[in-house]
Amino acid sequence: MRIATKLFTSIALFSLLSGIGIVNAAHHEEAAAPAPPNIVELAAGNADFSTLVAAVQAAGLVETLSSEGPFTVFAPTNAAFAELPDGTVEALLLPENKDQLIAILTYHVVPGNVSAAEVVTLTEVTTVQGDIAAISVTDEGATIDGATIVATDLEASNGVVHVIDTVMMPPSE
């Protein structure tokens, strides 16, 4: 619950700061609002995603996830990665396991900009990795491939991020 509170606080602060316009009193001109970060910058700016960022870097996906997109990323937190069996993250970050890491990470990415309002209308999505991830919506909330979606609609310049509490594994892995 503490992670969700931190994420909510971070999102609220980010939303507040990015929504404030800066007015130049001398010229009575409004400065342009800063551009929202791309997906990688958004993740890198949040300490709860440091393991995800390290994995994206090890997989060589920084450039792709920084590109125009749009992408929808179901982003596992550090706590989600910590739930994997001991040694799993370290093994996945090794160069010889890059293909497996890419498959796992791209299973968390859906092409297009899929908002939370849209996610809850779906029963499945096809991931960039190629497999289908099931979506379930109940009174308790929404899940994707068994991972609970704990925060939604973190806007990036090239898509949207939804935070999940579990690292999803593609069926083919």
Automatic annotation (TrEMBL):
<dbReference type="InterPro" id="IPR036378">
    <property type="entry name" value="FAS1_dom_sf"/>
</dbReference>
<dbReference type="Pfam" id="PF02469">
    <property type="entry name" value="Fasciclin"/>
</dbReference>
<dbReference type="InterPro" id="IPR000782">
    <property type="entry name" value="FAS1_domain"/>
</dbReference>
<feature type="signal peptide">
    <location>
        <begin position="1"/>
        <end position="25"/>
    </location>
</feature>
<protein>
    <submittedName>
        <fullName>Fasciclin domain-containing protein</fullName>
    </submittedName>
</protein>
<feature type="domain" description="FAS1">
    <location>
        <begin position="36"/>
        <end position="168"/>
    </location>
</feature>
<dbReference type="InterPro" id="IPR050904">
    <property type="entry name" value="Adhesion/Biosynth-related"/>
</dbReference>
<keyword id="KW-0732">Signal</keyword>
